[in-house]
Every structure is written in structure tokens, then in C-alpha cells.
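FAQ: What does the model actually see?

It sees only this:
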Amino acid sequence: MKRLLFSGLSLIAMALAPGIAQAGCADFASAGTGLSIQYDPFSNTPVNRILTLRVSRVTPSATSVRFIIVDPNPAAGATRLGVAGPEGYDIAWTQNASQPVFFHGAEQPNATNGAVVSFGSGPSGDVVHESFRLSVPAGQSVGAGDYYEPLEIRYVCYSGNDRLDGGEVQSAGRVAIDLETPEMISAWVGSMGNRRGEIDLGVLGRAQGSATGSVVITAQSTSPYEISVGAKWGELRRSEADAAGLPYSMRLGGLSVERGDTVVCDRTPAPSGRSHALQIGVNGEDVMTRPAGAYSDVITLTFAPRLGLSAQSGCSAV
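And it is asked to produce this:
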């Protein structure tokens, strides 16, 4: 029998940071205190959530404003949250999803793009709330950390049909997306949720010789991690007081290990994680010299984050 110990899955939060007032014909800020979003790098379901912007009239003569949202720091031509966060995120206008409102280049608001909001008359019409949909692709291989992405708002105000200016920019950092990926690690034997597995070597006889068996453990982690190898006895026994123990060998992910060893790994790929095959083997000569009986041992693999470690690619024994 094999026992597996591992930690649970944490949640990930994302928030739209509130803006700060600036001079211009309009001002843009997130509504409320921000939006909390759960993002699991190992989930196959993309994030789709509503973001609400508070659009305020600054110039009294302004009757409407057309604006676009811009990621000013794209990575290799694609949007990306922070330095090494998820790529390919998008923002769409809920009123008209076919109207492009989110860009990552030199685009300016014009008649073919942008969200348009109209202000009402008098002070009561100075503030308008506009909704957008944020989407983040699933399965992004994101390590534990905080990924902050400042956004620009480029806009043009109108008084009736007349433009009030040549176009203005609310600088990046006034509105931002902050993606936090916490330390998270999970593991299972065989299928997701199983914490125990069994390696059955069958009935061994003198003519059979050596025998091996294995189970596969899958790990998912957003940070480098370590696997501590433990065992109840470190050999196969018929009982606690059995003096005729049967030695066995262990290999974990192709690495030769013993009780008390530790294997260190870099963070796993997403969304699939990393497979660790645990193989047990017994020598035919040892089998021939042991009394008949049912032999067993309990092996424990403990998965834990190894923060601060810049592990090489893959796993190694230490």
C-alpha cells in the first residue's frame, strides 16, 4: 500500500485597481473597491468576469466621450499581465462585443472603435458606469507571485457632434489589473483526488526471479517543490517484528531514491502538471532466501513548496 500526503489548492485573486483623478475632459476609474477573481492555472475553464468602469465628466460642456483601453506593455505582440503573467487576456464591451475597445499598439479612438458613453444634463449626469468583460485564457503556466499590469485610457470628448480636443490619454497605472498567483500545490495517485495507491508485486516464486511494479503520482504546483520520501520500515515485512525483511529498490520519476531522500523539482507545467512514476523492485535472489508469507511496507511521499529555490528544469535528487 502507498500513502500520499499533499497540500490543498489555494485561490487566486485579481483586482481592477481604482483610478486617481487627473486633469482632462473626463476621468476613468474602477467602480467600487475592486473585483476579486479566482484564477486557477490548472483549470481548463477560462476566466470571464464583468469589470465596471466609472466614467466622470470633468469638462462641463462635454456631452459624450469615446475611449479605448490599452495595454501599453505587450509581450511579443500579445497582451500579458505583468512581466511573466498570463498572456492573451482581452477586454470586451458588454454593450457591443463586436466593437473593438481593447488594444496593445498605437491605436487611437476613432469612429470604428472604442466605447461611447453619453453624459446626462446637470450634475446628476456627470457620472456614468460602463461594463466590460475581462477574459483570461485557461491553462496559463504562471508561477507564484504578483503580476501587475497598468492600463492606459485613450479618449476623445464631444460637445454634441463637435470634438472638444485632439485626443487625451489617462496614463498607465491609473487603471490596472493586478493578478496574484499564490503558492499552490496538489498531488494525487492515479486519478485526481486519490491520496493512496497500491503496488502489487503478485505471488513471487523461486522460478520467477526479480519483480517490479509502479504507480503514477501527478503533481501540480505554481512554485518549485520538494518530495520527501518516507517509509514505515524501508523493507518489505510480514509483521512489525519480522526479522526476515525483504529489501526493495525505489525509483521516483526515474531517479533512484531511498527512505529519507528528497527530490526537488521546478514548478510544473500547466494545465496538466507533472507525472512522477514510483517504481518498486525486488531481487529474485533475495526472494529465494526469504520465508513464505505476505510482505508489505507503507511508503509516504510528502509534497511541499520549496520557495526561494531556482530549481533547474525538471527534477533532481538531493
